# Entry
Amino acid sequence: MTAHGEDWSSTDPEVVPLLITPGFDGGFNLRFPEEYADEIKALLDDQGLSHSTAADFSDGVDLAIEAVKVLGVPGALAGLAAVIRIVVHRHDGKKFVLKRGDEEIQATGYSDKQVKDLIDEAARKQAELDGDQL
# Structure
C-alpha cells in the first residue's frame, strides 16, 4: 500500500490524487490530500453541494475524505465537476490525477468532457449500487 492508500498507486510527490470512490445513499467519497481539505470544502459549499467529512481507519491512509451527496440532486454532478476544474486550475503547476476505480485522467491536458464523463459514469454505477441495496 502506498502513502495514499490502496486506491492510489503513484509515489510521485508532484502528483496530487483526486479519487472518487463509492459512498452511501446516493453519494461519492471524494478523497484528496489533507492540505487541500479547507479549499475543497469551501468549493463544495460554494457549489451548494451537501457534504460531510468522513473517516477512514485503514492503516497508512493519509487522504482526507468528503462524502458528497450527488444522486437525485439537480446540478450536483456539474457542481462536483466544477469543484475539480477549479482546484486543478488554481494549482496549475501541479499534476493532478482524477481516478475512479480503474479509470484515470491526468489533469494536465484533461478536458471538461472527460471529467464530466468520469463523474457521470461514477454516478451511474453508484445508482446501481444503491439500487442493489434496497
